[in-house]
Amino acid sequence: MTIVKDVETRGMHHCETTALGVLLRHEGLDLSEPMLFGLGSGLSFIYWDGKGMPFPFLGGRVRPFDLTRNLAARLGLTLTVEETASPRKAWQNVATPIDAGRPVGLQLDCYHLDYFQSKVHFGGHVVAMYGYDEHDAYLVDTGQQGGAVRTSRDSLARARAERGPMTARNRSFTVTLPARPPSWQDQIIPAVRDCAEAFLAAPIANLGYRGIAKAAGQVPGWLLRAGEPRRDLPQAALLMEKGGTGGGLFRALYRDFLDECTRLIDDGGLRTGHRLYAEAAALWTDVAALITKAGESGDPGYLDQAGAVLHELSRIERDAMQTLRQL
């Protein structure tokens, strides 16, 4: 058995920030999960209903791994990324740093992981790996999935090699702090401004605040869109609140990030942004509850209510980001 020493196996709310937290704490930098998410300019929105998709996807954050890239650039980290189509090389890319005493981040499809509670294909899942033995790999996943967990090496290989939307070719990565790390506090305002600019200036109507308005118009038709409404709608709502796909989890993270920022920086714009995202987080929870009720009851009135709340959320988040862009 090979186990990296001094790894804190703390499972947080979101997969990518959980993995980044493990890697950065091992390097000596301990930031809260909301701060990791905010410094990585992680908040976004997409309404995606592609050809052949069984059900629409609501994404509440930037694309998988963009958060990691953003955070590395913001903090001056050395981000070393490996990708390969070779199973042998893929294992070597994770075993080598672990043998040298460093945890590794992995992007994979969670469907194949032995411990995963919900068997849904999602190729943008991220975990930290900190050890292995002859049969199993030792991982850190979200608190919801168990924090410190293990999966068979065979299942890990399948998860890493899966192809499809948002997957990567056996992607693994490590981070290294610079000899003189920059002050992360100085990066707060630039990170907030960049996130706000991207949210407001999204190039297509499926993204940003316009994407939320698009969802507002589409969600009322979800009973007809769903193959199995009693399954599909509650699952979509659960992912929004617990997985963060639609907005609930990520809006709560961004709310808490802005709250932490107001304790470090005395700025009225930050306080306004925090107030508006506190309101938005609560309303996203209301949307998820209404979608669940619609699936369970078959009553389209709940989806009409959800659409109305989403229209309000589009306005609130636009106003919040317009304020934050001017910091």
Topology of this protein?
Layout: E1 2-3, H1 15-27, H2 33-39, E2 43-48, E3 57-61, H3 66-75, E4 78-82, H4 87-99, E5 104-108, E6 125-132, E7 136-140, E8 148-152, H5 153-161, E9 172-176, H6 188-200, H7 208-218, H8 222-225, H9 229-243, H10 248-264, H11 268-297, H12 301-325
Antiparallel strand pairs: 1-6, 2-3, 4-9, 5-6, 5-9, 6-7, 7-8
Any descriptors?
single chain, 327 residues, alpha+beta, 7-stranded antiparallel sheet, 12 helices, BtrH_N, Lantibiotic ABC transporter, DUF4872
Q: Shape from CA axes?
A: globular
Taking all residues together, what is the mean pLDDT? 94
- Portion of residues in beta strands equals 5-15%
Task: Supply the helix-strand structural class.
Answer: alpha+beta
Could you describe the largest sheet, including whether it forms a barrel? Answer: 7 strands, antiparallel
Distance between the termini: 50 Å
H/E element sequence: EHHEEHEHEEEEHEHHHHHHH
Number of DSSP E strands: 9
Total number of helical segments?
A: 12
Give helix % range. Answer: 40-55%
Low-pLDDT runs of 5+ residues are none
Question: In angstroms, what is the radius of gyration?
Answer: 20 Å
Domain Butirosin biosynthesis protein H N-terminal: 14-142
Domain DUF4872: 154-324
Organism: Planobispora rosea
InterPro entries: BtrH_N, DUF4872
